[in-house]
Amino acid sequence: MPWEGPLRKSPKKTAELQERIRLPARESPRVARLARTVRRGVFWQLLLFTLIAGVISVGMALYPAWLPATASEQADRIGHVFWFTTIICAGIFAVVAAVLVYSLLKFRAPRGDNFETDGKPIHGHTGLEIAWTAVPFALVTAIAIFSAIVLGKNDKVGDNPLRIDVTAQQFAWSFKYPQHQNLAATVLRLPVDRTVRFHFAALDVLHSFWVPEFSQKQDTVPGIDTYLTVTPNKTGKFPIVCTELCGLGHAVMRSTVIVMGQRAWQQWVSRAGQATSGGGASAGKAVFTEQGCASCHTFKPAGATGTVGPDLDKLPEFAQAAGQPLEQFVRESIVDPDAHVEKGFPPNVMPKTYKTLPDEQLDALVGFLTEGAS
Ligand code: CUA
To answer: Using omega within 30 degrees of 0 as the cis cutoff, is the peptide bond preceding 171 cis?
Structure first.
């Protein structure tokens, strides 16, 4: 007797159950034919389950827009890898789900079985084992090769990249265009269809540069130069997000990238370059606007009404209270904002990025604030 089971409990029931789970015998042609028909039926049922599970999983991958529309060549390539991998996963999920559902339906313990019977032990199936090793190996290798090709392509900068130096700091981003008189900005403007090479520097802790529509993230690390290549291929306005928990202000460490037509971008560069250079009040006002001072401060000459930081129309009073000449006080407050913190305002809120402003722009800004306030 090959299998005894709980004979002592109920010999009759056990014999019945044994009969039910026995595989079809192969002796007679009639039984063999029956077995073939059963196997074919199993195949079609499994195929049906596979198709249903496949449609559901592909539908779930497609239907809610999981990812934002891409806006760079690199993001498009990453999208191809993403969908290649997702389709493979959906296929494997469908096969596994089909076999699982089929097994749940067909091999349920009979009613009244009370866990007394068990299936026939199966040991070893060389063909199956080779298949489930070789197929995943081939799929994972394909994904690895595809990803390597995309990574290689995404890192190519071409012959004329636009270099942008990015400074990350608690809790602000700032950008410099070294090929364009070191133009500085807190809102990033890029020309469409030109490859941009970002060079990142972090002044304090780890940050991470992310534009969801560009699909790539790059950490910024104090003391280490990091890089990222992006070729924007859609004009528009996209968010820049810090994705590395960097302190209390992490959630507000955001900026905007504006991808412009090439001609519009050229015009902006020359206008901003002229506006912020050459000194004088108009240059100072341009720096004030470009650096985003208005988002936090009130300053009538610039039409600014921010209330996050102190009212800059009161700079002369603040300087007097600090016992400093106005110009010296203004300059110090820009490059070292925590030297004097006005009453009612918390320290460590104003970014320290402004100390990296080119001298010419800093002079213009100090001049604008000093003259405008007095
Ligand atoms: Cu910087 Cu988070």
So the answer is: yes
pLDDT band at 279 (very low <50, low <70, confident <90, very high): low
Burial 269-283 (b: 16+ CB within 10 A, else e): beebbebbbeeeeeb
Burial class (CB in 10 A: 0-12, 13-18, 19+), 165: middle
pLDDT at 371: 83
- Counting DSSP H helices and E strands in the chain, the numbers are 9, 12
Three-point CA angle 314, 318, 320, nearest 5° = 120
User: How far is ligand 1, taken at its centre, from the CA of residue 255, in Å?
Assistant: 11
Asked if 246 contacts 209 with a C-beta cutoff of 8 angstroms, the reply is no
Average pLDDT, the chain: 85
Which long-range contacts (C-beta less than 8 Å, at least 24 apart) are formed by 8-11? Answer: 9/116, 10/116
Atom of ligand 1 nearest to the CA of 246: 2
Is the per-residue pLDDT at 85 higher than 90?
yes
64, 201 contact by CB (below 8 A):
no
Q: What is the DSSP letter of 313?
A: G
d(CA 283, CA 162): 24
Q: For ligand 1, which residues put their CB under 6 angstroms from it?
A: 171, 207, 242, 244-246, 250, 253
Phi/psi-derived region of residue 247, left when phi > 0, alpha when psi is between -120 and 50, beta in every other case: left
Contact criterion met (CB below 8 Å) for 227 and 200: yes
Say whether pLDDT at 327 is over 60: yes
Instruction: Report how far residue 116's alpha carbon sits from residue 113's, in angstroms, rounded to the nearest whole number.
Output: 6
What does the pLDDT look like over 88-115, one tens digit per residue?
999 999 999 998 998 888 888 777 777 6
Residue whose pair of structure tokens reads 């199936």 in the numeric block: 125
Atom of ligand 1 nearest to the CA of 171: 1
Q: What pTM does this model have?
A: 0.67
Name the closest-CA residue to atom 1, ligand 1. 207
* Top-confidence residue, 310 or 279: 310
Alpha carbon distance 49, 57 (integer Å): 12
